[in-house]
Design brief:
homodimer, 431 residues, alpha+beta, Beta-lactamase, 3-stranded antiparallel beta sheet, 14 strands, globular
Chain lengths: 431, 431
């Protein structure tokens, strides 16, 4: 991951010029060849086709359904005067990170700068701002990318809280497949180190490098086509057992998606449930989500716990709102308060120094959540290309966002996102 | 399709011995190799793995969602004394077709004989019988196979009724791709002939023949793996344009799935909507279905109108109930009554003689629905391996059924299904 956002910013066509409706992806019966988006040629992950594919990934890849259960969706009330609020918020100005002195950008401009597909802002549990752009609609699912990790990490911490999972155990206690005999990367790692990504593993996640391990990982899971004669791993688990340790565990923070897949595997083992079934029982049903979610699965039926969840926007907002309220939503305690407390208060700023992005100075990472440690105590779930749940306890604000920024890493759009979110928080707090 | 059920009935393990829970398909983290079900080796269509895969097809293939809309699901009330009714119905005896004189089978026995996965019976709109076997649950989706065709045919007749679609036009009027210049099978065919499958096309649908065209069709749509060096069609539409006429149009009935895919293409062209979107707007939302359905799509995003719909059982029952009530459900007219009337009364028994199965003597086929022309005027949507919506107007009864019979064609399980359905109808009518 580049540490200098400006250096790695090639010229991409603007958001307005890559509207997926206007570009006509997958329109027509059949769509003309130049409007096709498919897995076979990797075009499902090629900008600007991603502006369509991220909202339609289940049409391209196998998925399992995360069932919302029966009964009506939980209320997510709209603020009165939302039109006035929209206009107020659109005009809100902020200074992007690293911008020349005096540079100002409005909230409305930031939506385009960030290639936003959909965004919803809750203040005190009410929708004060909600926009669907491109091909998005309220009920439309969208890739949440690594926002998935924060769901996985929270579920793991919940099992720790219940005593079902012992965070001090080494990984092979639960997954003998990753034991010492295997020489595997996690043979000597504790569950806690996995949960906080303080793992030394020979695995690179530089999205700008086509030779990075993340692509092998994705090919193993079937997310990308495999070249003829492919002899690599054919599932997420088969890939995990091949990885080797590099550097110490329990030291610095190093963001590597494979850790979340190990954690998903542990959850599956200790609960005896498919990950998607557990996610439905623990969160989708109790939160009274309004849509079933879809989750990418590999050829062994293993859900991609590191990045495969496709929820609708409001259901991400619901989850954020429950966390903001100490685990409760609409007066019902869904997630134990201690789990939320652990996420918010036990991250290590020291460990974060080694691998945290420059856009989150003084931050931390806990149970696969990102802590800004800013003056409002904001924390977030963050996914590549712009997916986010941003929770600002001081401002009683939650933001859920989907995006399809041409560049993957958050460092590229943090400068036009984090100060926007904070400016809005200050505005709402003062209002 | 074999015309002698007995001749084509090899010994398969019984339903009780192929329970997908007991056999452990896809159980474990990861499942052991011998418990895997996947597309790559065709095992997703190999009995007895089908007893799992038909209920989990979206985990194996790309799908689009058929949105149920907002709001609570429509009521599908349970009859009082359902326990007593269950026991009464289970004990009901009938004589299978072609059975030796004096042979009797109970309804309960027929569930196993037919490898039933789930079945629901409505009488006067109330659930009088409902069973979920194997891995099925009320919210679980299941392949409906060619029951899909009856949804497609009804949507087409609805468009005819509205004057949007002219049934007297030749297919190329709507689909120039299938025009005379192409030499295609449908160049001289009318829309009406497509809707009633009175088309002469060189295409075989013998499920027992591995060289039948139906498998090429399925490979084109991506439902089955393609061999190395595959140079066949890569989508449903690309396959359709390759087919050639054989024999006259407008004469005998010949059941060929490709006709439904042509009809789906026409619907897409005249509505300007994706098929799944149209299905959601016309039926899934107005019927207040309780689950989103999933529908298989090919690499061009084309829904498999000939067999790709995966609904939950009760939503199939809802659709049948609406038809039984002349297109209305819960007092709301969803489908125009004239459309239902056309299905029920305009089938040609003469045309049916050429290609109807021996288990439906005197039957007919209209708008992709099967008319039994029995004493109750029953009609049905029928899919391979046991999928069915059976509507008995005289008995005010609707049956929805999912199955995973080892043999594909209905002729193999009609003998233990049709007389069971009719016996239950007579029982309910008398009660």
């Amino acid at each position: 991951m580049s540490t200098d956002p400006a250096a790695a910013k090639p010229a991409f066509p603007a958001a307005a010029d890559t509207d997926p409706h206007a570009l006509g992806w997958m329109q027509g019966a059949p769509p003309p060849a130049e409007r096709l988006v498919c897995k076979d040629d990797n075009s499902h992950f090629a900008f600007p086709r991603t502006r369509w594919s991220f909202a339609n990934m289940r049409q391209l890849l196998p998925t399992t359904g995360i069932w919302r259960g029966e009964g009506p969706p939980g209320a997510l009330p709209t603020a009165t005067h939302i039109e006035r609020l929209h206009s107020e918020i659109d005009d809100l100005a902020f200074t992007p990170l690293n911008a020349a002195p005096g540079t100002r950008m409005t909230w409305a401009e930031s939506l385009h700068a960030n290639y936003t597909d959909a965004i919803c802002v809750l203040h005190r549990g009410r929708r004060v701002y909600e926009r669907y752009l491109g091909v998005m609609k309220p009920h439309q699912l969208h890739m949440s990318m690594s926002v998935t990790k924060s769901y996985t990490g929270l579920l793991a911490q919940w099992l720790v809280h219940e005593g079902v999972l012992d965070q001090t155990r080494r990984v092979p206690h639960y997954l003998p497949e990753l034991g010492a005999g295997s020489g595997g990367a996690w043979a000597e790692a504790s569950v806690r180190d996995v949960m906080d990504m303080r793992i030394g593993v020979a695995y690179s996640e530089d999205y700008a490098d086509p030779a990075a391990h993340i692509w092998e990982h994705a090919r193993a899971g079937g997310l990308f086509p495999r070249p003829p004669g492919y002899d690599g791993a054919t599932s997420f688990y088969r890939y995990l057992v091949k990885l080797r340790q590099e550097g110490p565990h329990g030291a610095g923070f190093h963001y590597k998606t494979v850790n979340t897949d190990v954690l998903g595997w542990i959850i599956r083992r200790v609960t005896g449930q498919a990950f998607g079934e557990h996610l439905s029982e623990r969160l989708w049903q109790p939160l009274a989500c309004e849509q079933d979610a879809a989750m990418l699965v590999d050829a062994e039926g293993t859900e991609f716990a590191g990045g495969g969840l496709n929820p609708c926007l409001r259901d991400m907002a619901r989850f954020g709102e429950a966390l903001r309220c100490g685990g409760a939503l609409a007066g019902r305690q869904v997630v134990p308060e201690a789990v939320v407390h652990d996420i918010r208060h036990h991250g290590s700023t020291e460990a974060f120094k080694t691998g945290g992005p420059p856009t989150l100075p003084g931050g931390a990472y806990r149970n696969m959540w990102w802590l800004t440690n800013n003056e409002h105590g904001a924390y977030a779930a963050r996914g590549v290309h712009g997916q986010a749940i941003y929770i600002d306890p001081a401002a009683e604000m939650v933001i859920a966002r989907f995006g399809s920024h041409p560049l993957a890493a958050n460092v590229h759009f943090d400068p036009t996102s984090l100060p926007a979110f904070h400016a809005l928080a200050r505005h709402l707090r003062g209002g």
